[in-house]
Trehalase
Amino acid sequence: MHPLIEDYALIGDEQTAALVGRDGSVDWLCLPRFDSAACFARLLGDEDNGHWRIAPTGADRCARRAYRPGTLVLDTEWETDEGSVRVTDLMPQRDRSPDVVRIVEGLAGEVTVRSTLRLRFDYGSVVPWMRRSDGHRVAVAGPDSAWLRSEPAVPTWGEDFGTHAEFTVAEGEKVAFVLTWHPSHEPRPPLVDPYRSLETSLADWKAWTDRCRYDGPHRDAVVRSLITLKALTYAPTGGIVAAATTSLPEEAGGVRNWDYRHCWLRDSTLTLGALLSCGYHEEAEAWRNWLVRAAAGDPAELQIMYGLAGERRLPEFEVPWLSGFADSRPVRIGNDAVNQLQLDVYGEVMDSLSLAREAGLPTRPHMWSLQCALMEFLGSAWRQPDEGLWEVRGGRRHFVHSKVMVWVAADRAVGTLEAHPDLPGDLDGWRALRDEVHREVCEKGYDAGRNTFTQYYGSRELDAALLLIPRVGFLPPDDPRVVGTIDAVRDELGHGGLLRRYSATESPVDGLPGGEGTFLACSFWLADALHMTGRTKEARELFERLVDLANDVGLLSEEYDPVAGVQLGNVPQAFSHVGLVNTALALFGTEGAG
């Protein structure tokens, strides 16, 4: 039986990440970066596409697993007739090269353990040449090289294009494996001490999580979400990837399979707010700086997403040799949505930079120049139709959320000039733009007969992004149009108590066959909107349910199927975890953040 998405836990080193299943198998790992080609791709194929399993011989799923509190160090335990054993998995903060450390420890009795390593570079398609050198097993293929060793050394042998080891551990005994990647043309990197790496990782993560200012209800879930956001951060640049994976399906067996190993501008304000509110100003500043570098250039060429270092070209292609998670094809690498026009990103950039300024993050002269250039572009471009924040592939429309975010851009520009009159800018022009956009949205994007805003001008369809109208300040929460929109969205897009983004099977803008699950970030937005309109009891009940949808180690994917009761979409999803943090802060007040 194919694993479920929630069967996976995450380890990482803030430059890439691996997914570890309940069976002790590392089934996904891209080296050396999040967006590099995978060397373990069993997640999207089968064992021959690469994996590394360490488990007792004959064992299936583990008895239990958990992260060490406040860390990204994972413990997986098995109970067997011979005894019990623990495997501790981590990726230490790298010096030069990425390492995967796996420490096997006997807990009781004497257990026979087997390690099976199948490296398959280039998304599971390339079988490397294996050799022995200096006590290592060395795999080489083209630009990639990986070195495997154990401490103490255990015998290994090659079989079925894999590297195998079998050994016993008694109570208190340990065997550590280290897998290190480096470019094949370079000499072997320095050896890491696996046991010291474990101690250092535990101390570093604990020191980081101890900085969290949130001390309200569900603190463990909030801290786990913040750890996940930290793990999805590409440390050299401060960029935060949307997820660690590509092509995990939004519908089992469907075609809605996208690559999320890139950085989206739409996530910027909500992510920045979560980091700042919980006391992580250094990380917030790094994300803000990445945002400014990525957005620099011609405002007409502002993209909705960028690469980890701000790369603009993210060409989309399919990988035909991978069967897909649960036979969901195609498997896609890259993302063509990078070429879409989404006007809302201008509002998100302006909102983020305004929030950063208000929070006291250091400013740079060029930041305001960039904002002025964005506003000059929006002065005329805002009238265009666009693809909207959901990256639909059914053509451009005048999406209401996009226009609302244009209003946000103008509003934040006006607010900055009013607070800092020494800055240059077209105050009167931006006020006029703000008022004009507001009037048009209220006239063309609102259905008076149903008392709700709509997905786009003249449509009857709804969109969960409309729930953000009171949050961004476009209208106050007690405005009857806001209350009506919240109720209509919940009634028409609700499914099993959660919320879909929009009606994918009915909307003419979707442009794709099949459907999708409920969208977890949107469900958090619903909880926020209910709270803002005085329905806090309902909001907290929904929040409790959403927290319970996390898997056993606290991870959330992009979507959830309330009928089948399983997670859907790429994992772990930064947008879902940002939603959890922000909703906790909203529901439990500023006192929860210290």
